[in-house]
Amino acid sequence: MNEYDSNRISDLFKSNGYLRSFDSQNVNCYILNTCHIREKATEKVYSDIGRLKKNYRNKTKPLVLVTGCVAQAENDEMIRREPYIDAVIGPQSYQNIPNILFSLNKKIKKFNLTDFDVIEKFDKLNSLKNSDTNVSVFVTIQEGCDKFCNFCVVPYTRGSEYSRSPEEILKEVDHLVLNGAKEITLLGQNVNAYLYKKKFRLSDLILKIGKNKKLKRIRYTTSHPKDMTDDLINCYKQEKKLMPFLHLPVQSGSDKILKNMNRKHTREEYLDSIDKLKKINPEIKFSSDFIVGYPGESEKDFNDTISLIKKVNFINSFSFIYSPRPGTPASKMKMVDTKVQKKRLIILQNLLEKIQMQKNNDKIEKVEEVLVENRLKNQIQYFGRTKDLTPVILNDVSDVDIGNLIKVRINKSDKKITVW
Question: Considering the entire predicted model, what is its pTM?
Answer without folding.
Answer: 0.82
